[in-house]
Request: fold
Amino acid sequence: MKTKGFRFFVYGFIVLLSLLLLEFCRRNVGSFAGAYPFAEKWEIDYSIEEVEAALKELQQSDPAIFFQKDSLVLKPDIFAFNKRVDFYYADRHEIVHTFIRGFGNNTHLTLISFNDTQSGVLRLMNRDFNFFANEKEKQIFKTRIIGPIYKILNKGSLVKSVN
Reply:
């Protein structure tokens, strides 16, 4: 004879198993939100034109942080909504893939992935890093990329993380 406690245990086990299956699918199949689920976004309180001008100035003053050092190349992504900018971490030999997209007076800067130039390994943000490594990568990106962009924009606004 089934007791109330046993039914509670079975229902709890089914709920737990369902949540674990859902999380497994989310991590291996992909997140359930947005076109780039494995990305980290920052909102910059400037128009896309101002951010592009700041990127061009940054490329002239510090070309080492860009993958293509001779000129700034803003390539459209496959949907033509975003513009792709590739930065470079020379100490780690990694290309840092990002997108920028304008929304009126705001621009979203999205960190997508890291591509190791020596081994060819591609690591996606928010998928291939654990929580602490993910936070560390966000902090490195803010220091190396977003900080210099804001110094050029020089308005003193705060960067708001969207995610």
The chain is about 40% helix and 25% strand. The chain has a mean pLDDT of 83. Residues 33-161 form a domain with the Alpha-D-Glucose-1,6-Bisphosphate; Chain A, domain 4 fold (CATH 3.30.530). Strands lie at 40-44, 75-76, 83-89, 94-103, 106-116, 122-124, 160-161.
